[in-house]
Amino acid sequence: MENQTCFEKMVADAKKNITEISPNEAASKVKGGEGVIIDVREKDEWDEGHVPDAIHLSRGTIELEIEEKVPDLNTTIICHCGGGGRSALAVESLQKMGYKNVRSMAGGFKAWKEAGLPTTNI
């Protein structure tokens, strides 16, 4: 793995400390009222399409804004990005902040779309 970038190494290290769930599992939890989806992509990515009912908190601001959007540290939070790297880092960060039920959606928004799950750009 000597060809890994520093970012890829950070993501691989983060993934050792977090739990990933599938897009279908994420959709099921949200539909059942068991959690919220946080999209950590940038605004231009969000504007092109996103998971319905997701909350947009970009990777750069999530630590600043999460407590206002999700004040309960026990809420199940499912983070996703485009492919799973940034969300892994966000989940690790939220865990350090004291959030107890944070998950990263494996494969990100790309995997969500490939699973045929609904998207919106409204």
Q: How would you portray this structure in words?
A:
By secondary structure, the protein is α/β, with parallel strands linked by helices. The chain has helices at residues 6-15, 23-31, 43-48, 62-69, 85-96, 108-114; strands at 19-21, 36-39, 55-56, 76-80, 101-105. Strands 1-5-4-2-3 form a five-stranded parallel sheet. Helix 1 crosses helix 5. The longest helix is centred in the C-terminal third of the chain and has 12 residues, at 85-96. The radius of gyration is 13 Å and the shape is globular. The mean pLDDT is 95.
Question: Could you give a short description of this structure?
Answer:
By secondary structure, the chain is α/β, with parallel strands linked by helices. The protein has six helices and five strands; from the N terminus they run αβαβαβαβαβα.
Rg, please?
A: 13 Å
Helix content: 40-55%
Helix and strand succession?
A: HEHEHEHEHEH
Q: Note the overall shape.
A: globular
User: Can you give the mean pLDDT?
Assistant: 95
Q: SS-based structural class? A: alpha/beta
Taking the sheet with the most strands, its summary is:
5 strands, parallel
**N-C termini distance:** 41 Å
Strand content: 15-25%
Taking strands numbered 1, 2, ... along the chain, how are they ordered across the largest sheet? 1-5-4-2-3
Q: What is the tally of helical segments? A: 6
Number of strands: 5
Low-confidence stretches: none
